[in-house]
Amino acid sequence: MNHATKMRRGRRTGAIRRLARRTTLTADDLILPLFAIGGTGKTENINAMPGVRRMSVDVLAKTCETLQSPAVMLFGVPPQKAKDSTGNYALREDGLVPEAIRAIKSARPELAVLTDLCLCGYTTHGHCGVLTASGEVDNDASVRLLGRVAAVHAAAGADMVAPSAMMDHQVDAVRSALDENNFTRTGIMSYAAKFASAFYGPFREAAGSNPGFGDRSGYQLPPENREEAVRDALLDEKEGADWLMVKPAMPYLDVLLDLSNATRLPVAAYQVSGEYSMIKSAAGCGRLDETDAFIEALTAMKRAGAAAIISYWAEEAIQTLKTV
Ligand code: PBG
Questions:
Q1: Given the CA of residue 128, which atom of ligand 1 is nearest to it?
Q2: Measuring from each residue's beta carbon to the nearest atom of ligand 1, which residues come in under 6 Å?
Q3: Which atom of ligand 1 is nearest to the CA of 271?
Q4: pLDDT score at 188
Q5: By the 8 A CB rule, do 34 and 71 touch?
């Protein structure tokens, strides 16, 4: 047995370990999700996500003035009474998301504004598309609607729209709708590999988007199947996506790695609400160190191939990175 190779030589000091690093998390990697509500001067806590707040558009814009993250991902949270069966509110040019885009862009023009593009927050039944008479999600009607919503976001100044409904050919429909309306500069970050996941639980409280009946397994991906996820994601590349995304992140690092190797497009990872709440809760009762845990989790996502990460800890992570 040859004992000449000593792995611990490379781990002996911090400086030596840093030199050999293959993965470095930086501020440039992070996208902060933001939830917009109506009213002015309003912030609301989200029980299931301690530390995350819904904010009225004016407060959001003010918050953006001092953000360190290079990008935000916007979600609109309209009141229940604004919802209907087809999510019409999502088409309003004076809706929460378009208003928030304009306010953020005037407060911080250089901040990249991405918008979640889905219907679940706007429909009374809480599904990600419109329904047929028999109560199934109507794929083609839904993607046409998503295309129109994308144009509304683009007109308000969104840099990228992020279709998350998991409808077939939604990227194609969104790209066509954008181009037909001369929004050729607006990008698409596709929620390409989005799994039917229990880890979205806290978000559904945050956004009030729980499906009223059934679940999302008729359109979101089955957790058991990596091949299907990569195949589905690569279709979005063919349809014209500029970015692909894997979501959730930590339970699906194998998919992230596989997809990153299968495409030359940048791939984002979404560290979702359940991943956030899980670590928060464990840290809250003293079972692990919150900062160490989220930095390790984010670093693992980068190692698995993420070019950017959507994280509720984006600001805290950047703050931490400055001090290490
Ligand atoms: C909209 C959407 C969801 C999330 C992002 N966009 C919820 C869902 O699909 O049910 C989840 C984000 C998170 O859990 O942090 N479809």
A1: 16
A2: 116, 118, 120, 128, 164, 200, 203-204, 209, 216, 272-273
A3: 15
A4: 98
A5: no
User: So which residues are the catalytic ones?
Assistant: 194, 247
Predicted model pTM = 0.97
Q: What is the mean pLDDT of the chain?
A: 96
What residues pair up with 308 in beta bridges, in sequence order?
A: 268
142-184 pLDDT, tens per residue?
A: 999 999 999 999 999 999 999 999 999 999 999 999 999 999 9
Q: Which residue among 75, 118, 146 has the greatest number of ligand 1 atoms within 8 angstroms of its CB, and so is best to mutate?
A: 118
What type of residue sits at position 55?
M
Q: Are strands 71-76 and 267-271 parallel, antiparallel or unpaired?
A: unpaired
Percent of the chain topping pLDDT 70? 100
Q: What is the set of domains in the chain, with CATH numbers?
A: 23-321 (3.20.20.70)
Task: Pinpoint the alpha helices (H) of the chain.
Answer: 14-20, 57-65, 96-107, 139-156, 170-180, 201-207, 226-238, 253-262, 273-284, 290-303, 314-323
Minimal-distance CA residue to ligand 1 atom 11: 200
